[in-house]
Amino acid sequence: MDSVVLASPDFYDINYAINPLTNKASVVDKKKAMEQFDKLKSHFIKHKIPVHILDATKADPQGKFPDLVFVSNSALILRGWPTKVAILARYANPERRGEEARCGAYLRHILGYKVISLPEEEGLYYEGQGDSRWSHNGKDLWLCYGAGRTTRAGIQAVKDAILKEAIEANWIPPTIHSLQLVEKKTYHLDLCFLPLPNDRILLHESSFSAASRKEIRNHFGKDKTLHVPLKYLYACNSVWLDEKHLLIPRLPDCRSWMYNGTKMKVEEINVDQFHLAGGSASCMVLALWKTL
Q1: What is the C-alpha separation between 152 and 178, in angstroms, rounded?
Q2: pLDDT of 150
Q3: H helices of the chain, where?
Q4: CA distances (Å), origin 11, targets 63, 102, 244, 253
Q5: Residue-level pLDDT at 23
Q6: Which of 88, 136, 237, 263 is the most exposed place for a label (fewest CB within 10 A)?
């Protein structure tokens, strides 16, 4: 990745429960959440990855969007593209609608992106990089539907938008794969599927339909496909910092397992305050890619 966008957690809280991992009775330690956010930022700085901060106090001064910190869900950044293009989310849950506009304004006015909004149609939902994963080389884009967030209509709208941009730019679009999620606990793709820069793939196999599991194995190869047990629920929500380093959420007994399985150097980040809302490390990171 070229750089990242992080959204400050100034108003992060548990105000509602819109996924199976959230307990509305949970109480966020605001001081600890900010410390964990700052530590996350420091890992990118350590690896000389520029960090852009979407300041919640400016983007959302009334504090309407406690989940704004999970900025990955708000947009898809096109990778391997000749220009800077972002496709905005269209959230399935009304509680989060409006976050994508804040992220879009930041991408457009501060970072200079062309920002594309999807049609406002009932049943057409798409939740950004939370339901999208690029392959290690950027030639394949994996999208998912079926867990109550992104829908088939949303995936089709994203495909249409990418094809339109490719035609206008005279560019070759990525190969787009559609996967079906069947496990409600892993309600976003970034909770159960992670292509690595060494061409390996981490996934919770039980999250996917039989047809989707077969497609994944056929593409990556059985020897490169690493099944992650659900006891390491947030392991697939890791972030690869470069070709050799993987930033993983701190989970009991997970570090050595991840090191042995991924064949990458592992760094840990404690983001347990954000687990309270059903999000983790990758959910908090919107990766930006160099234009060609």
Answers
A1: 8
A2: 98
A3: 30-46, 56-59, 99-109, 152-169, 210-220, 255-262, 272-275
A4: 6, 14, 34, 31
A5: 83
A6: 263
d(CA 249, CA 194): 14
Q: How far apart are CA 183 and CA 39, in angstroms?
A: 31
Per-residue confidence (pLDDT) for residue 281, from 0 to 100: 98
Measure CA of the first residue to CA of the last residue in the chain; give whole Å: 13
pTM across the whole model: 0.97
Whole-number pLDDT of residue 123: 97
**Rounded Cα–Cα distance for residues 292 and 276 (Å):** 39
Residue type, 97: R
Which residue's entry shows tokens 């919640």? 56
d(CA 66, CA 9): 8
Place of tokens 């967030």: 149
Q: What is the DSSP string of 164-228?
A: HHHHHHT-PPPEEEEEEB--TTS-SGGGTEEE-TTS-EEE-GGGB-HHHHHHHHHHH-GGGEEEP
In this prediction, residue 24 carries a pLDDT of 85
Listed residue (241, 283, 186) closest to 2, CA to CA:
241
Which residues of the chain, if any, have pLDDT below 50?
none
